[in-house]
From TrEMBL:
Lineage of source species: Eukaryota, Viridiplantae, Streptophyta, Embryophyta, Tracheophyta
Protein name as catalogued: Radical SAM core domain-containing protein
NCBIfam families in the record: rRNA_mod_RlmN (TIGR00048)
GO CC field: cytoplasm
GO molecular function terms listed in the Swiss-Prot or TrEMBL record: 4 iron, 4 sulfur cluster binding; metal ion binding; RNA methyltransferase activity
Compartmental location: Cytoplasm
Alphabetical keyword list: 4Fe-4S, Cytoplasm, Iron, Iron-sulfur, Metal-binding, Methyltransferase, rRNA processing, S-adenosyl-L-methionine, Transferase
Broad class of the protein's primary localization: cytoplasm
Length: 454
């Protein structure tokens, strides 16, 4: 205990200047100082690997950490999802749903109509306001109140990288100095998709995913998630056209951060704001069954399940979350839950790894696994990255695999890699540090398939 306390004092003393990595065994023995950012999530059965990080004090504090003296701010959110700035305890507006914003505006003595005008300037009318000077048409006194009590931005643009196919990767710096990545994918069919991140890093440790090498640093707030879509529209609409789709397939496991993800999705689909169709906002998961059930009950947005294997043996290896939530449990849960959602199909994502999950037997098993589940299947080419020993399935084999599934009556889509020359493609986001999630032992029958690189 003395060792832990001395480490803890050292960590708090260094918090304003550096980042400190501590083992999970130490972190679990005491609560962090409430004046600093909480240590990231500890190693659990749900989180196969988590890197705990202490950073400098975050600018934005949760509402639940404040006292009732500040306009009883706990009335305006669920605690973790609404953020407040340390600079004069300013409210971060993009962390609120419209009903929360309306309550907050009324608490300062203004009409609900002013809240709607503000909402439309943040999310609608092609304004996407980031500062007070962009709030044309609002009452002068109301703008003064906002200037004193509100903050508009949760992210700072760091860099935009453009791939040869037109895909853009936007790097954002967070208030605590961490960096996330967002991808905008234009399509010649008039559909442009923004791929948003929900966490800094990821705890799931999927063996084919570069982001998983990072471990989990922390969840993103609802404001930090929403602002990725706002920034994408603000920065790129003139270049790529209207951004019509959102996919939660960037950094992180969305359902591991379910409170903030559901809230962010609700803000995105608001008919007076960003106006994304619920069916064009897709939340992806590796298969956290309890959170998946909650999502299907609470949200009308689309669901994607990253499947990637047809046996527990293979999925236990490449997706360790399967050790807790087996294939049978995951798929049976979907069969039962989708009975209550009309005209709703789940999207199964299947990253194809040469010699691992692309055999004729895999195709036949996949047909059996999804029976009774209204679904579509996305076959995704593996996108290589440093440190990975997997190889992408050859195009000819992917087509044969697709034809087998389609011959059984399944709806199948071959998804092309986009942005891979800028590390913007599926499974390539993030920047692992010196401490990385562990590579798992390769089952003996696949050692030859993946070659000496293992």
């Amino acid at each position: 205990m003395k060792h832990w306390m001395s480490m803890r004092r050292m960590a708090v003393g260094a918090v304003s200047n550096s980042t400190l990595f501590l083992p999970s065994s130490l972190l679990s023995s005491s609560k962090p100082n409430p004046l600093t950012i909480p240590f990231s999530f500890y190693l659990t059965k749900t989180s196969p690997f988590s890197i705990s990080v202490l950073t400098r004090q975050r600018r934005f504090l949760s509402v639940s950490s404040l006292t009732a003296d500040h306009h009883n701010l706990s009335d305006f959110g669920d605690g973790d999802s609404v953020a407040i700035s340390n600079e004069g305890l300013k409210m971060l507006l993009k962390g609120m749903t419209y009903p929360e914003l309306e309550k907050w505006v009324q608490s300062h003595g203004y009409r609900p109509g002013q809240a709607m005008m503000l909402w439309k300037r943040m999310y609608g009318n092609n304004i996407w306001a980031h500062h007070i000077d962009e709030l044309e048409g609002l009452n002068k006194d109301f703008k003064k109140m906002l200037n004193e009590n509100a903050e508009f931005k949760a992210l700072t643009q760091k860099e935009i990288r453009t791939a040869s196919d037109g895909t853009r990767k936007i790097l954002f710096t967070l208030e605590d100095g961490l960096v996330i990545e967002t991808v905008v994918i234009p399509c010649d069919r008039g559909r442009t998709t923004v791929c948003v991140s929900s966490q800094v890093g990821c705890a799931m440790n999927c063996q084919f995913c570069y982001t998983g090498r990072m471990g989990l640093r922390r969840h993103l707030t609802a404001a930090e998630i929403v602002e990725q879509a706002v920034f994408a529209r603000r920065l790129l609409t003139d270049e790529v056209g209207s951004i019509t789709n959102v996919v939660f397939m960037g950094m992180g496991e969305p359902l591991h951060n379910i409170d903030n993800v559901i809230k962010a999705a609700d803000i995105m689909v608001d008919e007076q704001g960003l106006q994304f169709s619920p069916r064009k906002v897709t939340i992806s998961t590796s298969g956290l069954v309890p959170q998946l059930k909650r999502f299907l009950h609470e949200s009308n947005c689309a669901l994607a399940v990253s499947l990637n294997a047809t046996t527990d043996e293979v999925r236990n290896w490449i997706m360790p979350i399967n050790r807790k939530y087996k294939l049978e449990l995951l798929l049976q849960t979907l069969r039962e839950e989708l009975c209550f959602k009309k005209n709703y199909k789940v999207l199964f994502e299947y990253v194809m790894l040469e010699g691992v999950n692309d055999s004729d037997g895999d195709a036949e098993r996949l047909i059996e696994l999804v029976k009774g589940i209204p679904c579509k299947i996305n076959l995704i080419s593996f996108n290589p990255h440093s440190g990975s020993f997997f190889k992408p399935t050859k195009d000819e084999r992917m087509i044969e695999f697709r034809n087998t599934l389609a011959g059984a009556g399944l709806v199948v889509i071959l998804r092309l890699s986009r942005g891979d020359d800028q590390m913007a493609a599926c499974g390539q986001l993030g920047k692992p540090g010196t401490i990385q999630a562990p590579l798992l032992r390769v089952p003996e029958q696949f050692q030859m398939a993946i070659g000496s690189s293992a």
